[in-house]
Design the sequence.
């Protein structure tokens, strides 16, 4: 449900970083979304598409890059992928695990269509 | 094709305001916690018991978040503590900016403890830093002992788990040992309290812990 607010945050970042005159040329907005960021990619995509209409970024769409969730064992320093809600080190069975990736929610960059506005 | 690099966190604006809130709390030597749970877990009742227990020892302020109505702020205000209601009008969580605005309506210099009661929702509030020292998640026995596994993000983000409605354990299929095990599997660092808002059981231990936190924030 909070994806609408996040989509607005993405659009705000794009508008801050791209020159006003270039906004109509914005196409792919690359977003990194961690598997455990608590964000539903489809909802984010839907919300973004819904809010760009009527803005200078109307031709923009999201390119969502999922980031796998990975953890590091605090006891033996092994790194492994996190597949279940309960984190456990596959090497030493330790349960003190720090997440090293998978909680990201970042705008990476945007691609501008140099030919300008799509018709 | 031109590429414009952005490399910014989507929630950076929220996080910046949360950092401002946190600095403000530190200036006033305030302990502030963010109370999260599903709707109906008994957050407000625990808060009422907490105020009853501590109001002679601490100056408490409350920020209430709800989708609609100021019923909770009214409930809390009956105990003679300043309470500010945030109505999110459909929003499923509190954001740092909403809390910042609410803080302007509290005399922070005259308080020791501020409780932010979030919108009842075990999902979205996990993602939003409000500037609090820590999150306290309340889970009631009627919700079942599997909830930490089903909503892991919230239990991972929280520092404290209050298991509420323990007076109902004989009547509901909730095993406290299993609940604790699930919660600690998700977050081994959780501090756990068992309470009943109805009977008041466990409230003194929770309040003692809270007093410690307030003393530390003041120091």
Sequence:
């Amino acid at each position: 449900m909070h994806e609408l607010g996040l989509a607005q945050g993405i659009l705000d970042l794009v508008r801050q970083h791209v020159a006003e005159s270039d906004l109509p040329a914005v196409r792919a907005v690359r977003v990194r979304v961690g598997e455990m960021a608590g964000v539903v990619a489809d909802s984010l995509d839907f919300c973004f598409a819904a809010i760009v209409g009527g803005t200078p970024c109307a031709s923009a769409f999201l390119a969502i890059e999922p980031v796998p969730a990975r953890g590091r064992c605090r006891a033996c320093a092994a790194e492994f992928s996190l597949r279940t809600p309960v984190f456990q080190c596959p090497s030493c069975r330790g349960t003190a695990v720090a997440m090293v990736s998978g909680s990201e929610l970042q705008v990476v960059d945007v691609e501008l269509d140099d030919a300008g506005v799509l018709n | 094709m031109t590429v414009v690099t952005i490399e910014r966190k989507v929630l950076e604006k929220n996080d910046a305001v949360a950092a401002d809130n946190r600095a403000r709390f530190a200036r006033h030597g305030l302990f502030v916690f963010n109370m999260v749970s599903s709707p109906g877990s008994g957050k407000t009742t625990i808060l009422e018991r907490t105020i009853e227990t501590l109001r002679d020892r601490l100056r408490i302020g409350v920020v209430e978040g709800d989708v609609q109505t100021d019923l909770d702020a009214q409930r809390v205000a009956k105990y003679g503590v300043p309470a500010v209601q945030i109505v999110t009008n459909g929003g499923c969580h509190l954001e740092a900016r909403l809390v910042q605005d609410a803080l302007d309506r509290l005399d922070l210099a005259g308080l020791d403890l501020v409780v932010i009661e979030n919108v009842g929702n075990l999902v979205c509030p996990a993602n939003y830093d409000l500037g609090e020292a820590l999150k306290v998640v309340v889970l009631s026995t009627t919700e079942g002992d599997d909830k930490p596994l089903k909503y892991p993000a919230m239990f991972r983000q929280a520092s404290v788990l209050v298991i509420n409605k323990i007076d109902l354990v004989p009547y509901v299929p909730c095993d406290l040992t299993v609940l604790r095990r699930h919660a600690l599997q998700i977050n081994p660092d959780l501090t756990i309290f068992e309470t009943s808002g109805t009977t008041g059981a466990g409230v003194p231990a929770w309040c003692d812990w809270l007093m410690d936190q307030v003393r530390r924030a003041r120091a």
